[in-house]
Specification:
By secondary structure, the chain is of the alpha+beta class. It is elongated and about 55 Å long.
């Protein structure tokens, strides 16, 4: 059983809502066997595998955006880009200091806010240590990252949690 993140793998496929809770319920109830109309045993860690795959896709898109020059890093540079209205996606590490997040979010003015990745994940994707704040400029790279990051947000969301 292989998660198909791109929707392009051959075969019959079975659809599950992209949330950890839905996947864990489907594994527990044997829903994949019913969907495939044959024996199918999902690994117990399928939710972890799906989360890792979604995060890998989003962080890979962020890394590609950096290579195209569409990413600004660091509090002061991000703040300047926000003031210049050059930013369509503001990324803050989930473990960043609240005051820094708040200061940048006040300047975001319509930019999408992404806070689902921690500093280590962002640093690994961007090839720099200590990444806490990043901003993406308008373009295809920002659109791709935002689409992939929203999938991770949806998957990692805790039902009933206040945001």
């Amino acid at each position: 059983m292989t998660p198909d993140f791109s929707g392009a793998l051959p075969g019959r496929g079975g659809w599950v809502t992209a949330s950890r809770e839905a996947i864990e319920t489907a594994v527990k109830k044997g829903a994949f066997a019913r969907s495939f109309k044959q024996s199918a045993i999902a690994p117990d860690d399928l939710g972890d595998r799906v989360e890792a795959g979604l995060a890998r896709a989003a962080l890979g898109a962020l890394g590609m955006a950096r290579k195209t020059g569409d990413v600004v890093l660091g509090f002061e540079k991000v703040r300047a880009a926000l003031k210049a209205k050059d930013v369509v996606v503001l990324v803050t590490a989930s473990d960043a200091a609240e005051d820094g997040k708040r200061k940048l979010q006040r300047l975001a003015d319509g930019a999408a806010l992404i806070g689902v990745f921690d500093g280590d994940e962002l640093s690994g994707a961007l090839g720099r240590d200590g990444v806490v704040h990043a901003a993406l400029k308008r373009g295809a790279a920002a659109s791709r990252f935002l689409r992939e990051a929203r999938r991770v947000e949806g998957f990692r969301a805790t039902p009933g949690a206040a945001e």
